[in-house]
Write a structure and sequence with these properties.
Layout: H1 2-12, E1 35-39, H2 45-52, E2 63-67, H3 72-79, H4 81-86, H5 99-112, H6 126-135, E3 139-142, E4 145-148, E5 167-172, H7 176-185, E6 194-200, H8 201-207, E7 213-216, E8 219-227, E9 232-237, E10 242-263, E11 266-286, E12 292-314, H9 317-326, E13 328-329, E14 335-337, H10 340-355, E15 363-367, E16 383-388, H11 396-402, H12 404-416, H13 435-443, H14 453-464, E17 473-474, H15 482-491, H16 497-500, E18 505-509, E19 512-517, H17 520-526, H18 529-542, E20 543-544, E21 550-555, H19 559-573
Parallel strand pairs: 1-2, 5-9, 17-20, 19-21
Antiparallel strand pairs: 3-4, 5-6, 7-8, 8-9, 10-11, 11-12, 12-16, 13-14, 15-16, 18-19
Helix pairs in contact: 9-14, 10-12, 10-13, 12-13
């Protein structure tokens, strides 16, 4: 109703101007406008022409303004306006064979009309899905067809906006004091709170984590709590001058490869991967100039694991060797600073977004976990993964596979023609990375060349300053030298060293460290969050560990020994069972 009232007032001339988000881009006719002002490039040519097309209808003259922001696309348009005005609108990308979407359609279709042989033409995976639904007792075979036997309205299980069925609500309160009073009077109650939005789990972990600043209807709210059990976030109004961006670690595992091909100096592949994303901190970025005001760690990280589609590129060895020599340790001794792999990732993602019709939340970019371990023998190349950030994939990664060549050349052009001198957040992601070094890496995707003198000198300085904390053990050495490692922890007076020395077996598998303890009680005890965090601290302090290291705790119980101990305890307490 509100949108229709706006439309009526604009057409009647009661409103002479309207400030709005791009929500008015589609679905509303706001009359004969003389001018539009776009604050920032909207992300695609299609959206740009749709929004500017609000003015100048019916053959009328008009003026359109595009105010460029300090963002990669905007700055590229500033130096190459022909790209915007002479290029065609992007192709919309959709994957009609996404298995999760197909499953939802088949369930809904069966509830409306029994499935017949003709439906095979509509659903390519029908033969694999029907047996699964029969097993789940949601379908039954009847006279050569398959009728629905599940819940009354399966279409209601799915959102038209999101694929994830797990939903989170945001509840806002007028003030911190109001929220505190409500919690004290009625603990666990959402009394007097107002629900303003709902979203899927992945979006909630990115936008509703504790400390997040959430924007809704022009108002800012600070999230104070995210309850994973009730799936609700509690927030109060916020009046600060910054917004938040989540960060953490992402781990990928290749499930299967469908296509592979060599282009120039790179090998590119397309297939299914598993993504394990952990949100462990967030950045505070100032409005307008996007300056980083600092990081804040979450008390308890948020984890999301899903399968999706990805294109991955094997990075040539000369780039890997040079970039690894440039790495510098942080305060913990981890080689994560001066990471020019991040510059390449940033440039490739922005180029992929420009070439395909995608936004930053549609695709993700991540490096394989061996990128930041110099000289590590991990048995595989360092790879750059560009993946769909939707479970099952939506076709973006496959399009990126087809357009890899264009994306690489686009990334080179964006970095090379950025007006900055040494590198900036627009072209390479931040001011700490050297523009020439990132550009050299991108060009070496196409043709091999010697690293510039400036890079060689920089790598020599990095190696001279490395590491701030001397580490005798690599991640791969822990399996063979665990006892020696634990003795070093004991000599250093580290808490927890005695327990770790009693671990029965240690195994290293890619980025996973598997510790086998004596029984299931110790397994559960060690898996408590505080204990796991302490073990990880010890490992990272004394060994060179991958950024996305995973700790797995297993147990193998000696039942004969347990039986003897329990027998003695039972006799002591006079009970049949403990």
């Amino acid at each position: 109703m509100e949108r229709r009232e706006i439309e009526r007032k604009m057409m009647a001339g009661e409103l002479t101007g309207l400030i709005c988000t791009n929500a008015l881009e589609l679905g509303i006719d706001i009359g004969k406008l003389d001018c539009t002002v776009l604050v920032g490039y909207p992300g695609t040519r299609a959206s740009f022409w749709q929004q500017t097309g609000r003015a100048g209808r019916c053959g009328r003259r008009c003026v359109n303004y595009l105010i460029l922001e300090n963002q990669p696309f905007d700055q590229y348009i500033a130096i190459s306006p022909d790209w915007l005005f002479e290029g065609r609108s992007e192709n919309a990308i959709v994957d009609p064979d996404n298995l999760l979407i197909e499953l939802a359609h088949i369930r809904a279709a069966a509830a409306e009309m029994p499935l017949s042989l003709d439906d095979v033409a509509l659903f390519p995976d029908l033969g694999e899905i029907i047996p699964v639904l029969l097993n789940a007792q949601e379908l039954k075979s009847l006279a050569g067809r398959f009728s629905w036997a599940g819940p009354a309205f399966p279409a209601g299980d799915y959102s038209l906006r999101n694929m994830d069925r797990t939903r989170y609500k945001l509840i806002v309160y007028p003030s911190m004091e109001h929220l505190r009073n409500v919690q004290e009077k009625r603990k666990g109650s959402l009394f007097n709170g107002k629900e303003i939005t709902e979203m899927d789990e992945s979006q909630a972990f990115h936008e509703l984590h504790p400390g997040a600043v959430y924007l809704h209807d022009g108002e800012q709210y600070e999230v104070l709590k995210l309850d994973l059990v009730s799936r609700t976030a509690l927030a109060v109004p916020f009046y600060g001058n910054y917004y938040t961006v989540p960060s953490g670690t992402e781990d990928t595992r290749i499930l299967q490869t469908f296509q592979k091909e060599t282009f120039k100096r790179i090998k590119k592949c397309f297939g299914d991967i598993n993504v394990n994303e952990v949100i462990s901190m967030y950045k505070k970025l100032q409005f307008h100039n996007h300056q980083n005001l600092g990081h804040v760690s979450l008390t308890r990280p948020l984890q999301k694991d899903y399968d999706t589609e990805s294109t991955w590129i094997e990075i040539p060895e000369n780039i890997v060797d040079t970039y690894q020599r440039l790495l510098v340790p942080d305060q913990r001794g981890e080689l994560v600073l001066n990471n020019h792999f991040e510059g390449i990732s940033y440039a490739i993602k922005n180029a992929a977004m420009m070439v395909t019709m995608t936004e930053k939340d549609d695709i993700g970019v991540i490096l394989s976990n061996n990128a930041l371990i110099p000289g590590a023998e991990r048995g595989r190349k360092v790879s750059l993964f560009i993946y769909d950030k939707y479970e099952g994939g939506l076709g973006y990664a496959e399009k990126i596979y087809d357009l890899t060549e264009q994306i690489i050349y686009q990334a080179i052009e964006q970095v090379e023609h950025c007006p900055c001198k040494d590198g900036c957040p627009v072209c390479v992601g931040n001011y700490t990375l050297d523009k020439k070094t990132v550009l050299w890496g991108l060009k070496n995707f196409i043709e091999e060349s010697e690293s510039p003198v400036s890079i060689s000198k920089q790598s020599e300085l990095s190696e001279m300053n490395r590491p701030g904390i001397k580490k005798e053990y690599s991640f791969e050495m822990l399996e063979e030298k665990w006892d020696e490692f634990c003795e070093k922890l004991k000599r250093s007076g580290e808490s927890g060293a005695a327990f770790l020395s009693m671990v029965k077996k240690v195994e290293v598998k890619e980025e996973r460290l598997i510790l086998q303890v004596e029984n299931s009680f110790y397994e559960g005890w060690l898996q408590e969050w505080e204990n796991l965090r302490e073990v990880e601290r010890l490992l990272r302090s004394y060994a060179i560990c991958p950024a996305d290291m995973k700790l797995e705790i297993q147990s193998e119980t000696d039942w004969e020994r347990v039986k003897k101990i329990r027998g003695k305890l039972n006799r002591r307490y006079g009970k049949d069972e403990i």
